[in-house]
Amino acid sequence: MSARIGVIGTGWWATRAHLPAIAANPAAELVAIADPDEANRSRAAEAFAPPATYNDYRDMLRLERLDGVVVAVPHTRHFEIALDALQAGLHVLVEKPMVLTSNHARELLRTAAERGREIIVGYPWHYSEQVSRVREWIASGAIGDLLYVHSLFASIVWELYRGDVELVADEMGYTVNPTGRDTYSDPALSGGGQGVTQITHSGALLLHMTGLEPATVFAHMHNHDLRVDLVDALSVRFEGGCLGTIGSTGSTVRTQEEVLEYRLYGTGGHILFDVMNEQLMMYRADGSTTESPPCPPAPAGRDYSTSYPEEGPLDNLVEVIGGGTNRSPGRLGARVVAMLEAAYASASDGTAHEVAATDP
Questions:
Q1: Within this chain, do residues 236 and 341 fall inside the same structural domain, yes or no?
Q2: Is 61 inside any structural domain?
Q3: What is the mean pLDDT of the chain?
Q4: For the whole model, what pTM was predicted?
Q5: Over 182-210, what HEC string results?
């Protein structure tokens, strides 16, 4: 039996990652797409030939027999649509950030638990073999108890925050539809800038690899010439006493490479991880070192980098529908939401903020 999937939102990322992943997965079946943007919907329909198309996603949920949905819409729409899909009894793959407030995160987790359904948050790095290796090292105690962790993410998104989406067409890789001019530049749609667009990635990956639980956040943010934040610096205290810094800027110039790196220090060693260049080293107190091999090539017939497996979240949705393990669960997405909520509050009032509980 194929996993019957509907896709809500047919913009840049849905047409670059999720819809191609459905087409490439023999266990997946595209049932319908929904998008109020007629031009985007028409181009997506021409490219992927869904049996049905809808202007209103609620009609799709009501009329189609589905097992799961992809929610790939502007950030401020995530909560309403994901909640409707869960209440319809469907598994949900929701793009990052999962939602924008801890209250909404709790409600989604509660609804998913009541309906016996899973929320998968769209974090492709979680499906990287090198990331899995770091998780194994940390969980096994290979570098002891964590004392200090650091993440830096420098990305090419300043133009997106300005609404100059055509300038970054090559970097973004528009295959069918471009990103909307206001999707990331208008806080009414995005809910913020570098925090909810990029630290949602790097912060989630930090929590995913280490298992750390954020407790308190102090943050500085700077918008520069934008309506949303461009440069963010977070100081985080985690449960158990580990300290950390999470820095991110969207100002990397288009002629240079993006940077995503982690430095994880424990009582018995440390790990250095350059994600973009697939360089991963572990140094231990006994003087030994372990170097991870780079990520393997993509499987035959798949066209993506396995260091950033764009098809990973959709493939995981198919696995979950078939009874498999959720590798990027809603609980993790909720912790990132709460951490960012505290960071934005801290940047606003200049004080440290506790990270809200998100368990339902």
A1: yes
A2: yes
A3: 97
A4: 0.97
A5: CCCCCHHHHCCCHHHHHHHHHHHHHHHHH
